[in-house]
Amino acid sequence: MTEGPVTKDAVTAPDTTDQLVVLDNVNKHFGALHVLQDINLTIKRGEVVVVIGPSGSGKSTLCRTINRLETIDSGSITIDGKPLPAEGRELARLRSDVGMVFQSFNLFSHKTVLENVVLGQVKVRRTEKKAALERARTLLDRVGVANQADKYPAQLSGGQQQRVAIARALAMGPKVMLFDEPTSALDPEMINEVLEVMQQLARDGMTMVVVTHEMGFARSAANRVVFMADGRIVEEAEPEQFFSNPRSDRAKDFLSKIL
Ligand code: ADP
Ligand code: MG
């Protein structure tokens, strides 16, 4: 993975913290709606955290605050010991430290698959074109779409497009990957090919936050399940414990509807 240059920040905020993402008392409103309420969440390096909960509970907003697609009203968020930058180049750099994969694939439709994976590396990471191309081909191979490199996104299946989106995020050398319902828009037969790529990523030690309704994935890949309802973290537990013995009524009710 790409390593940034050693800056003076590295001296004041050494890269030794075990806590990669820390949300401390985060609050967020949309008008009168208190969408994130006193969120405290720490994600350790290499940890896979699955976030589940009913629709409208704030899961997407939580993800979006972590790479600052949404601002917060109070509290703090740090990534690898550093507070989220507000704007400019620092923000662009943060966005590449925090890879994000959405429900909709969000590929550049007028660029080829290969160009999609090369672009950010050259523009944001300032990687040399040749190295960026090489890295893109390696990653496309890793997610199993190397033979689609010269096609345009619309020529690929949804599952293939989503795997390209994962490769594109990985190309930036992220410290953490956020997945917001990455398989929800896929036809059923394509869900597993995307989950398998995510499983492999988890096994390789990537730090991941995954919003999903795929409970099989949660059981097998998550170190921890975070259950949200009404803008709050209601329950946090290891998957085995959460699924076999949820403590809160909200979680029991939710699980009884989806399992
Ligand atoms: P989830 O991902 O758990 O379904 P969201 O984070 O998308 O929940 O939304 C949480 C709540 O915030 C919902 O009530 C939603 O309607 C509201 N919301 C989300 N985004 C916005 C926005 N940009 N403006 C106003 N309300 C929003
Ligand atoms: Mg959502």
Write the layout of secondary structure elements.
Layout: H1 9-12, E1 19-30, E2 33-44, E3 48-52, H2 59-66, E4 74-79, E5 82-83, H3 88-97, E6 98-101, H4 113-123, H5 129-142, H6 158-171, E7 176-180, H7 188-203, E8 207-211, H8 215-221, E9 224-229, E10 232-237, H9 239-244, H10 249-258
Parallel strand pairs: 3-8, 3-9, 6-7, 7-8
Antiparallel strand pairs: 1-2, 1-4, 4-5, 9-10
Bound molecules: adenosine-5'-diphosphate and magnesium ion.
Describe the structure.
The protein has 259 residues and is an alpha/beta fold. Helices cover 39% and strands 24% of the residues. It is built from ten helices and ten strands. The strands form two sheets. It has a six-stranded mixed beta sheet with strand order 6-7-8-3-9-10, with helices on both faces. Helix 6 (158-171) packs parallel to helix 7 (188-203). The chain is globular and about 55 Å long. The model is unreliable at 1-14 (pLDDT under 50). The chain binds adenosine-5'-diphosphate (ADP) and magnesium ion (MG). Residues 59-60, 181 line the site of magnesium ion (MG). Magnesium ion is lined by residues 59-60, 181.
Question: Roughly how much helix do the residues carry, as a percent range?
Answer: 25-40%
Biggest sheet layout: 6 strands, mixed
| Uncertain parts | 1-14
* Morphology: globular
Helix and strand run: HEEEHEEHEHHHEHEHEEHH
Q: Roughly how many Å apart are the termini?
A: 38 Å
Total E-strand runs = 10
The average pLDDT is 92
- Counting copies of identical and different chains, the oligomeric state is single chain
Q: Class by helix and strand content? A: alpha/beta
Radius of gyration: 18 Å
What is the count of helical runs? Answer: 10
What portion of residues belong to β-strands? 15-25%
Major sheet: arrangement of strands: 6-7-8-3-9-10
Ligands, deduplicated: adenosine-5'-diphosphate, magnesium ion
